Amino acid sequence: MTTYSFVLYIAGQTQRSHEALENLRSLCEARLRGYYELTVVDAVERPELAERWRILATPTVVRLRPAPQRRVVGDLSDQHRAALALGLPNVDEFGGA
Known about the structure:
Order of helices and strands: EHEHEEHH
Radius of gyration: 13 Å
């Protein structure tokens, strides 16, 4: 099975940052349980990474794998739209919970 890899860029420990992280974790657990990697980058602490990846707004999640790369800006509260934008499989396609 394909392992998905995501990087979530946030800006500090704000409510919006926490919501984005929780929404992304929830989405991944529902659709990719055991087949994803998630890295969180705080753009305030690591501005060089945000600049290198051309992150213009936070929170932004970048799907690195599988190719092609995809990005979603926002707190991911609409999980259906976020899943479509990130190209995630449906729950029944991947054997999720």
